[in-house]
Write a structure and sequence with these properties.
InterPro entries: Znf_DskA_TraR. This is RNA polymerase-binding transcription factor DksA. Pfam families: zf-dskA_traR. It comes from Knoellia locipacati. It is a single chain. By secondary structure, the protein is an all-alpha fold. The chain is built from 4 helices and no strands. The chain has one domain: DksA, coiled-coil domain (Four Helix Bundle (Hemerythrin (Met), subunit A), Up-down Bundle). Bound molecules: zinc ion (ZN). The site of zinc ion (ZN) has 8 residues, from loops.
């Protein structure tokens, strides 16, 4: 299997995840001016936004961990094999999800 292309894909994905995380976790420095002058009740939607971004952040972190694990597997030559059963993950699955580290049955 050609893992050079996979490594490039994974590094691109890693970078975009890091960028997204930075955007999600950026301190809301202007939060005070956003809520200023708004009606009571807007605080609720702000809280919901906050909750959503935490969920998004958790999803991004989980994917980032997988991407880095997959990159480590490229380096030690085990990329493309399931970390649980050791069987090939399958090219179709890797095409959709290049950072997959488990086969469909073990995911
Ligand atoms: Zn497996």
């Amino acid at each position: 299997m050609d893992t050079t292309g996979a490594a490039d894909l994974l590094r691109d994905k890693e970078q975009s995840l890091v960028d997204e995380l930075a955007a999600v976790t950026r301190p809301q420095g202007d939060a005070g001016s956003i809520s200023f002058g708004k009606r009571i009740g807007e605080g609720t939607s702000l809280a919901v936004d906050r909750l959503t971004s935490v969920t998004v952040q958790e999803g991004l972190l989980a994917t980032l961990a997988q991407v880095r694990l997959a990159l480590a597997k490229v380096e030690d030559g085990t990329y493309g094999t399931c970390e649980v059963c050791g069987r090939p993950i399958g090219e179709e699955r890797l095409e959709v999800r290049p950072w997959a580290v488990r086969c469909l049955a073990d995911s």
